[in-house]
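Milestone M4 deliverable, item 7.
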Amino acid sequence: MTTIHAGAVLSPEERLARRRLILRDALSLLTLFLITSVIFTLTWLLHRSFVNHQQVLGQRWKARGEVALREGRPKEAVEALRSALNFVPDRETEIELATALAEAGRTTEATAYFNTLWESAPGDGIINLQLARLAARQGNELLAVRHYEAALDGTWEGNGYGHRREVRLELAGYFLSRRQYDQARTQLLIAASNAPDDPAIKLQIAALLERAQDSQSALGIYRAVAAERSAPVQAEEGAGRTAFALGMYRVAAEYLGRAIASPLVSALTDEQKSADRSMLNTASRILVLFPDINLPPRQRAERILADKDTARMRLTACAAGSSATAARLSGLVARWGEIPAHITGQQLEQQPDLEQTILQLIYDTETLTAQACGPPAGDDALLLRIAQNPFAVEQE
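Output delivered:
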């Protein structure tokens, strides 16, 4: 075997052999590199295909779950959203799954799921809202209110201002369901002060204020909305209804009359229209009976005398019911005995002190006879309404 030493001169055959060897090694390395590249590329493409397929399947199941949730099929939503999470773990999907569990009545599972999510994001608005709803469903008022308040202070995606208003109204509704009217009123007044210039939202708040037994605040909102251009008929109807409840019969008649005459009255239900007509008739009759201080003196005196006759007849009929009732009303009968039997409108007009005495006696008679003999009817019932708050009748 021939050994080639350094510095030796190679023959042409030896140089050719060496070039062939180098070329063969280079080709081998290139081939190995190409094979490795192909394998890597195929592996990457397969992985990408698998990942993309998972994404597609995850989105498909997620969409099915969301549709089922919107359409009120929470059990189907649970299964679909679980499948979606198996393909693509996602926080939003986890929240939707927990929501579906809650709507499916699986309260314990939903609570555990939301508590786990809450631990990683205690300031998340939607998570606190869902926990508040679950606590309310379980009768845990303290926890429900705590989570509602956390939702109000929490972070929200998108329109955070709108979400917080909805949470506040929901919290007010929760207080109303528990007849905690003061707490509900507080939340509603905050919502009203921050409400956007949207009639629908303002009317919603006003309706809730009515339920919270704050007709005065509700009336203010209804009147403000009714004063706007192209106001919905519900604003005038609401103003009339709440004014009627407050004994403000002049205002009630004005707004109820406008609502019934409105070309948009068809937006009201038949039940609402019937109730509105009844209230309008009642308010109109009360305004005929009421001796308004701004009436001409003679007309006011004549109204007081007519109301006096009505009230006295009511007392006579009530006292004749039984000896016990007569004894109960004896003081009232004695007061009537101190009133002149015959008096004209002109005489009463000239005696303002007597006018006030008779007027107060009318109101006391209707109030006391209602207690002794039960609710009155006809004009007596209307005089009793006036007696309950005579200063509100003509209030503007």
